[in-house]
């Protein structure tokens, strides 16, 4: 439906990871494997932390919800991306694009603050072990997770509405493999100052506050570990937060790499590569990080393999 030189778009075209026809099938199989490992790994973490009686602690409660978020984030992106590797016309409907953007924002903001909640949990476990079950009680855990999801949903709705409040004209080719804020706003033919301000303010504020929580928690954790006299005690204390430290470093490193680039060197292709990492690769890596380096999870997996029926009866 035309109005002057404006057109109400009914669909967008996603350019994908690469335009090269010869790379479509190899990339399809690469990302199919990544998504398959992501689903298997995160469902495994969700199952084990739900059914194993020895994993019913605040740390594994937060880990379960991180796995739910990782699974949701990759599922919002990967299936459509995989289909587009196999078809010549890589389209997504206008409302499908809005839904994908909203879903992506819910889970990415959720991951930012779930990692912050997990850092706080590790801080209490190492710095105040005697008060751990009081300070991080089941009620507090449920409150933190509920607030994370509520805030993520509110942020996603607000930012999505801002992005889709602008006018989109005849150009409908998104230089990305999913509907993201920056490439969508780049297509607009109306003033994007307000939505761009909303997007970057939201992203900056979320990163700032979550990183303050993470850095403050780890500053106190490091001080507490240095005060432990025995090397065995230091090793044990460090091992309780090593997996989370690795996950945080990979996630925030990727996000900061993308957002702190100089504007002159900034390109949508660079964003695309960083996006592959934090929407698809990190959700695959997190279950590996938390299982391969975690004796409790490995022991729970062995118990589950020995007696899966008995494990489900414990629920």
Automatic annotation (TrEMBL):
Tell me which species this is from.
Answer: Vulpes vulpes
The taxonomy runs:
Eukaryota, Metazoa, Chordata, Craniata, Vertebrata
G-protein coupled receptors family 1 profile domain location is 41-290
**Coiled-coil intervals, chain numbering:** none
Annotated GO CC locations: plasma membrane
**Matching Pfam families:** 7tm_4
An annotated Gene Ontology molecular function: olfactory receptor activity
- State whether keyword Plastid applies: no
Q: What is this protein called?
A: Olfactory receptor
Q: Where exactly are the transmembrane stretches of this chain?
A: 27-49, 61-86, 92-118, 130-151, 207-226, 238-261, 273-292
The record's similarity note reads: Belongs to the G-protein coupled receptor 1 family.
Q: What membrane topology term does the record carry?
A: Multi-pass membrane protein
Q: Which UniProt keywords apply?
A: Cell membrane, G-protein coupled receptor, Membrane, Olfaction, Receptor, Sensory transduction, Transducer, Transmembrane, Transmembrane helix
């Amino acid at each position: 439906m035309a109005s002057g030189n404006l057109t109400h778009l009914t669909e967008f075209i996603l350019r994908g990871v690469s335009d090269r026809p010869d790379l479509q099938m190899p990339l399809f199989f690469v990302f199919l494997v990544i998504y398959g490992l992501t689903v298997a790994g995160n469902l495994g973490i969700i199952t084990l932390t739900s059914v194993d009686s020895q994993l019913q602690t605040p740390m594994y409660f937060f880990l379960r919800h991180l796995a739910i978020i990782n699974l949701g984030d990759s599922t919002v992106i990967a299936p459509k991306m995989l289909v587009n590797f196999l078809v010549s016309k890589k389209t997504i409907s206008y409302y499908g694009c809005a839904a994908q953007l909203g879903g992506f924002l819910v889970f990415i903001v959720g991951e930012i603050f779930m990692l912050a909640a997990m850092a706080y949990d590790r801080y209490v476990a190492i710095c105040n072990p005697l008060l751990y079950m009081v300070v991080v009680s089941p009620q507090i855990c449920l409150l933190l997770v509920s607030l994370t999801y509520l805030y993520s949903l509110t942020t996603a709705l607000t930012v999505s509405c801002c992005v889709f409040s602008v006018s989109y004209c005849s150009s409908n080719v998104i230089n990305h493999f999913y509907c993201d804020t920056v490439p969508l706003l780049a297509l607009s033919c109306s003033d994007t100052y307000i939505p761009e301000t909303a997007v970057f303010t939201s992203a900056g504020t979320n990163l700032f506050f979550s990183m303050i929580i993470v850095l403050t928690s780890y500053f106190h954790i490091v001080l507490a570990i240095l005060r432990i006299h025995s090397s065995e005690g230091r090793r044990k204390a460090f091992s309780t937060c090593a997996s989370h430290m690795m996950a945080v470093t990979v996630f925030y490193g990727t996000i900061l790499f993308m957002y702190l680039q100089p504007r002159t060197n900034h390109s949508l292709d660079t964003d695309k590569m960083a996006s592959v990492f934090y929407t698809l690769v990190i959700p695959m890596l997190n279950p590996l990080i938390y299982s391969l380096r975690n004796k409790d999870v490995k022991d729970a997996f062995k118990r589950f393999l020995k007696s899966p029926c008995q494990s489900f009866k414990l629920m």
